[in-house]
C-alpha cells in the first residue's frame, strides 16, 4: 500500500513539473498521470481503458452543460457590455463607500459568470478612468479589482473550478455550495478591499500610472440593469427554489406540477434559462448568435477536457485502498480541512492554474473524505471551500492572471509581486481561517460539517 501512495505522490509531482517546467497541456499531463498511476498500481489494462472512459464521461455528464452554459453567459455579458452596466450601477449605488470597496464589489458580481482573466481585461479601462478622475492611486484600484474578481472565480459556481470540484466530490446540492461559496467569497472580497483601501492611503497618486486619460467608457447603447443582471440572478433564484421544493410535501394531485418545478430548478435547466436570458441581450448589439455560441464553446472546450481528465484521474485514485493507509500511517484525522487547503495551495503555487489545482486536489481528496470525517454533503462543501482558498495561494509569475493584472493594471513586476501576490496570499490564508472557523461552528452547534 505504501508503494501505491508513493506512485500517487509521483503523479502529483509530475502534474506540477509537466505543466510548469515542460509546458505540456494539462489535459496530456493528467492523462499520462492517470495511465501511469493505473499501470503502476496493477490495474489490468483491459479495465484501465474502461475506467478512463467512465471517469471522463461521468464528469462531463455531471458538469459539461453547466460549464458550457455558464461560459456562454459570460461571453454574452462581455460582448453585450452588460458588465459595464453592472459596474456603472454598482458604482452609483455604492458611491458613498470608499472607491476601492466599490471596485471590489464590482469584481465580486462580474466574476460570478465571467472568468476573472476576461473580467479584468474588460474592467481595466474603467479602473483607469476612475483612477484618473478621482486621483486614486492606480495600484489600489488594481488590487481592489484583482482580488474582487479572484475570490468568486475559485469559490462560486458556475465558474468551472467549483463546478468540477462538485463533480469530483459528488456533491448533490449545488445550491448549498453556491450559498456557502458566495458568503465566503464576499468576506474575502472585503479583505481585498480593506487591503486596497490601505494602499490608497499609503501610496501617493501619480499621473504617470495612467498612460492616457482617454479611458471614458461610452454609456450609449448599454443594456438596462434588469436585463444585464437577470442571467446571473435568475439561475441562482431557481436553484434556491429547487432546494425549497424538496422540503415541501405536495399533494398527490399536484405531483406533475412538482416534477415540472423540480426540472426547471435543476442547476442545468436553471443555467439554460440564464443563457437564454443572456442571449436576448445580443439583439441590441446586432451580432451573430452563431459567433457568440462558437466563442463560448471554444472557451469552454479546454476547461471541459481538463475537467473530464481530472475526473478520470479521480476515478483511478478511487480504485486504490488509500483509506486504511492514510488513516493508520500518514494523516491525523484531526487535521481535517488543512489537508485539502495545503494540497491546493502547493499545486497552485507550483503550477499556476487555480482550476487545475482545484480539479487535481478534489480528485485526490475524494477517497479520503471518510477518513477525515467529511463525507457528508456539508462536509464536501467545506472541502471545496478549503480547496478554493488554497487555489488562491498564491498568484505569481507562473499564473496567467498575474500577467494580465500587472500589464493592464499598470504594475511593474516588482509591484505586482508586492501588492497583487501579497493580496492573494492574504485572501488565501484568511480564507482558510474563515473556513476552519465556519466548520468548527457548524460542528459545535449542529453536530454536522
Major sheet details: none
Low-confidence stretches: 211-216
Write down how many β-strands occur, each being a DSSP E stretch of 2 or more residues.
Answer: 0
Spatial shape:
globular
Give a written overview of the molecule:
- It is a single chain.
- The chain has 449 residues and is an all-alpha fold.
- It has one domain (64-299, 322-446).
- It is built from 20 helices and no strands.
- Helix 2 (26-40) runs parallel beside helix 14 (289-318), helix 5 runs antiparallel to helix 9 and helix 7 (138-155) packs across helix 20.
- It starts with a helix and ends with a helix.
- The model is unreliable at 211-216 (pLDDT under 50).
In short:
With 449 residues, the chain is mostly helical. The chain has one domain (64-299, 322-446). The protein is built from 20 helices and no strands.
Write out key terms for the chains shown:
449 residues, mainly alpha
How do the helices and strands line up, and which of them pair or pack?
Layout: H1 2-20, H2 26-40, H3 45-79, H4 82-93, H5 99-110, H6 116-134, H7 138-155, H8 160-168, H9 174-202, H10 225-247, H11 255-265, H12 267-279, H13 282-285, H14 289-318, H15 322-330, H16 338-351, H17 354-365, H18 377-390, H19 400-408, H20 413-446
Helix pairs in contact: 1-2, 2-14, 3-8, 3-12, 3-14, 4-5, 4-10, 5-7, 5-9, 6-7, 6-19, 7-9, 7-20, 8-14, 8-17, 8-18, 9-18, 9-20, 10-11, 10-12, 14-17, 16-17, 16-18, 17-18, 18-20
Amino acid at each position: 500500500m505504501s508503494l501505491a501512495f508513493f506512485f500517487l505522490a509521483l503523479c502529483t509531482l509530475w502534474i506540477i513539473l509537466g505543466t510548469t517546467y515542460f509546458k505540456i497541456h494539462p489535459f496530456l499531463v493528467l492523462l499520462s498521470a492517470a495511465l501511469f498511476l493505473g499501470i503502476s498500481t496493477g490495474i489490468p489494462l483491459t479495465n484501465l481503458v474502461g475506467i478512463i472512459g467512465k471517469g471522463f464521461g461521468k464528469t462531463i455528464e455531471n458538469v459539461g452543460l453547466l460549464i458550457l452554459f455558464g461560459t456562454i453567459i459570460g461571453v454574452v455579458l462581455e460582448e453585450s457590455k452588460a458588465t459595464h452596466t453592472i459596474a456603472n450601477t454598482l458604482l452609483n449605488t455604492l458611491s458613498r463607500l470608499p472607491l476601492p470597496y466599490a471596485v471590489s464589489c464590482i469584481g465580486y458580481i462580474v466574476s460570478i459568470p465571467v472568468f476573472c482573466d476576461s473580467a479584468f481585461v474588460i474592467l481595466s479601462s474603467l479602473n483607469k478612468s476612475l483612477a484618473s478622475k478621482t486621483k486614486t492611486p492606480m495600484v489600489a484600484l488594481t488590487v481592489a479589482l484583482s482580488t474582487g474578481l479572484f475570490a468568486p472565480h475559485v469559490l462560486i459556481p458556475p465558474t468551472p473550478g467549483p463546478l468540477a470540484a462538485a463533480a469530483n466530490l459528488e456533491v448533490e446540492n449545488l445550491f448549498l455550495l453556491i450559498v456557502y461559496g458566495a458568503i465566503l467569497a464576499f468576506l474575502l472580497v472585503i479583505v481585498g478591499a480593506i487591503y486596497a483601501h490601505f494602499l490608497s492611503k499609503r501610496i501617493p497618486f501619480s499621473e504617470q500610472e495612467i498612460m492616457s486619460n482617454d479611458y471614458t467608457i461610452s454609456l450609449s447603447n448599454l443594456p438596462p440593469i434588469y436585463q444585464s443582471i437577470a442571467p446571473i440572478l435568475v439561475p441562482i433564484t431557481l436553484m434556491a427554489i429547487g432546494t425549497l421544493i424538496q422540503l415541501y410535501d405536495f399533494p398527490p394531485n399536484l405531483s406533475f406540477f412538482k416534477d415540472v418545478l423540480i426540472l426547471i430548478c435543476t442547476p442545468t435547466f436553471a443555467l439554460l434559462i440564464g443563457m437564454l436570458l443572456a442571449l436576448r441581450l445580443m439583439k441590441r448589439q446586432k451580432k451573430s448568435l452563431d459567433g457568440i455560441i462558437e466563442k463560448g464553446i471554444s472557451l469552454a472546450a479546454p476547461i471541459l477536457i481538463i475537467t473530464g481528465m481530472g475526473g478520470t484521474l479521480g476515478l483511478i485514485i478511487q480504485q486504490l485502498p488509500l483509506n486504511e493507509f492514510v488513516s493508520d500511517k500518514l494523516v491525523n484525522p484531526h487535521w481535517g480541512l488543512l489537508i485539502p487547503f495545503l494540497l491546493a495551495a502547493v499545486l497552485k503555487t507550483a503550477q499556476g492554474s487555480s482550476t487545475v489545482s482545484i480539479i487535481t486536489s478534489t480528485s485526490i481528496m475524494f477517497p479520503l473524505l471518510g477518513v477525515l470525517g467529511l463525507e457528508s454533503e456539508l462536509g464536501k462543501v467545506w472541502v471545496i471551500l478549503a480547496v478554493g482558498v488554497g487555489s488562491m495561494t498564491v498568484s505569481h509569475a507562473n499564473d496567467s492572471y498575474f500577467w494580465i493584472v500587472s500589464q493592464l493594471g499598470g504594475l511593474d513586476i516588482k509591484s505586482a509581486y508586492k501588492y497583487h501576490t501579497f493580496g492573494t496570499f492574504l485572501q488565501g490564508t484568511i480564507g482558510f481561517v474563515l473556513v476552519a472557523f465556519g466548520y468548527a461552528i457548524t460542528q459545535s452547534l449542529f453536530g454536522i460539517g
